[in-house]
């Protein structure tokens, strides 16, 4: 039955399920972990982590969006804990996922840049050696490594060309599979491959990670969801002074509604694939002993602050992401307390009864999942360029050249009104918090082998003046 369902989903996708497996980059790692564990280990829960590329929280119907983009995710969240204020540590994939997998901020883990040409990374094979800052250091114990050490069989599937083995993202996975090709592999294909791997796995507890590319640009939804959302309301003309990336929609129409409609249709395609994943995992494994996490690496912008896609700002359309966690025996609820994606690192290790790792900076979400309230800062960065701190519904963004902006998120959730001039004391207070977080990341990074991420000399001098970083 699963093959029939998946086949229906794939119709019209960029890459079909029917492509031979020889076209996949398949990296089996440490085959000795096929040995079956002692029976006691089987009581550990399966852990499933799904990261959805470029999915902003406010385009999910379960987060209040006007269109029904995500009925399956919405239904899933009714049996899970939904976080309304989850913050990614970077506005682009590589640094954000590296933070999630390492429990470290980008300045500390240093996997912050991509020097290899994009077409080359799409093949999964690099002929140009990336510089050291491009690689997630082998000196870091990743989430997959921590769980594998606790007796988990670890499976990773990704269609993002920056999350590949040469960049260090295969660390800790018994099976790691990247889907190369001219276009991104469709979510349906990745889910089908992952389910086949799960079906072939033994009774060991599983850690399964899938990284889906919908709704990442170029906004090309499959036939199943194409045309699902027609533009409504009056046209939203794109100013003639704004250039439109040619790859977004063929012909580059100058009505913003068309781009958001295509984006929403891709969200709907990912939603269908997740529905298949969750339902069929429940049939293949013990649904009553499975932790499932749905989140995104970053969001997406549609001229919210003048830009397209992602990577270049720290506004909330890029760093506020969905986070939904289903844990056995945990009551469903909505959590408004602010959390960070790096909190998943200690949380999933604890749920898997794996050994805690020294040096990680995320805070376990276990108490919050069980009803505790807490308030913590959320730190995000474009290493060397921009930094942001979010605390008590205020947000400060600081640029390396000294500029800064302050937003009152309670009354200005779209960050349209900079109130820094009217709130100098609050700026100073948040700047001290931001400086502490950045300084701690710099100091932590010094213990990790490899060249450090670039930190602007003016920023570094300020931290030294404040006594946060030594000479």
Give keywords:
471 residues; alpha/beta; Alkaline Phosphatase, subunit A; Arylsulfatase, C-terminal domain; ten-stranded mixed sheet; four-stranded antiparallel sheet; 13 helices; disordered N terminus
Can you give a write-up of this model?
The protein has 2 domains: about 1-375, Alkaline Phosphatase, subunit A; about 385-470, Arylsulfatase, C-terminal domain (2-Layer Sandwich). Strands 1, 2, 3, 4, 5, 6, 7, 10, 11 and 12 form a 10-stranded mixed sheet that branches. A 4-stranded antiparallel sheet has the order 13-14-15-16, with helices on one face. Strands 8-9 form a two-stranded antiparallel sheet. The model is unreliable at about 1-40 (pLDDT under 50). Helix content is about 30%, strand content about 15%. With about 475 residues, the chain is of the alpha/beta class. α1 runs antiparallel to α7, α2 (about 70-75) crosses α8 (about 255-285) and α7 packs parallel to α8 (about 255-285).
| Tally of distinct domains | 2
In round numbers, the mean pLDDT is: 87
CATH superfamily descriptor of the largest domain: Alkaline Phosphatase, subunit A
**Percent in strands:** 15-25%
Outline the biggest β-sheet: 10 strands, mixed
- How many angstroms separate the termini? 63 Å
Shape assignment: globular
The oligomeric state is: single chain
Total of DSSP H or I helical runs spanning 4+ residues = 13
Helix content: 25-40%
What's the number of extended β-strand segments? 16
Low-pLDDT parts are 1-42
Q: Structural class from helices and strands?
A: alpha/beta
Q: Please compute the radius of gyration using only Cα atoms.
A: 21 Å
